[in-house]
Design a protein that fits this description.
single chain, alpha+beta, 2 domains, 5-stranded antiparallel beta sheet
């Protein structure tokens, strides 16, 4: 079989290389978008819960030519506005940890004054959530924030959820569409390799049959040989994901990547089996 391997590689090495490159970058594309969707699924679900509660979020949004101002009276006015909401248990902090599975914490008067100090306002607002209020209730606070020159908007959580959910979903669907197209190309290239192998090595295969190599062993050997660029590309990607890319693979990444690889292996196996069956029937 070694002679068959070298003969096919000598005449069709570029096909092996193209399959390797396409499959590696296909895995990279699918993993990059699908893994983000999976990793952020729980975060998006938390945002959905807040959207259903009609909560409000603070979002950093560069707006205009506002100049930073440290007007103490205006800052005190903002603190007073938040104090009124705090008394009604409508202001929560710890949003970033909450989206990652933590707990929301009611904002206290002491924390309010500490966090709303000069230079920390944008950071503090970004970690807040307003509950049980209406859009009209947010307008005076929004006006005061703009007076201070801070580019922070108060928006319904529904908007944040819609944008975030659509972003991850659309990116994942795009990667799956492109991945499906690349998979079709790989299927066609593998089919070409199967046909080429039997045409290029017709005499060598006849000799192997004469010396007693069974069609079952021949089929198995050729299957793993033609599948080798897929396997090498997958292993190269997995190693790269854990050594080069910063967040590696999670369990679900292995599930869909190995499922995709298994489909490729099944395709090669079916084509080789049909070819062998054709030889037996001939």
């Amino acid at each position: 079989m070694t002679a068959v391997y070298w003969l096919v590689l000598k005449k069709r090495w570029y096909v092996f290389l193209v399959v390797f490159v396409i499959y590696f970058f296909m895995n990279l594309l699918i993993w990059n978008e699908t893994s983000q969707f999976i990793r952020n699924f729980s975060k998006v679900q938390v945002m959905k819960i807040e959207a259903q509660k009609e909560s409000f979020d603070f979002v950093y949004t560069p707006l205009s030519n506002l100049t930073d101002s440290d007007m103490e009276p205006t800052r005190n006015k903002l603190i007073e506005q938040f104090s009124e909401l705090i008394k009604q248990d409508k202001v929560y902090t710890n949003k970033m940890e909450y989206l990652d599975g933590g707990e929301l914490v009611l904002l206290t008067e002491d924390e309010l004054k500490k966090q709303f100090s000069p230079g920390l306002l944008i950071i503090s607002l970004n970690d807040l959530i307003l509950r049980d209020i209406t859009l009209s209730d947010t307008e005076p606070i929004q006006a005061t924030i703009r007076e201070l020159g801070d580019d922070v908007e108060i928006v319904p959580f529904q908007e944040q959820y819609d944008k975030t959910h659509q972003y991850y979903r659309d990116n994942m669907l795009f990667s799956l569409y492109v991945g499906s197209f690349l998979t079709l190309i790989i299927f066609l290239l593998l089919r070409w390799l199967v046909v080429s192998t039997w045409r290029i090595c017709e005499e060598e295969i006849k000799v192997l049959r004469l010396v007693g190599l069974s069609y079952r062993r021949l089929s198995r050997a050729v299957t793993f040989f033609l599948y080798s660029p897929i396997l090498l590309a997958l292993l190269t990607f997995i190693i790269s994901a854990h050594t080069i890319f910063y967040f590696g693979l999670i369990l679900w990444d292995y599930v869909y990547l190995l499922t995709l690889a298994a489909l490729q292996f099944l395709w090669v196996t079916i084509m080789i089996s049909r070819r062998v069956k054709g030889e037996l029937d001939a």
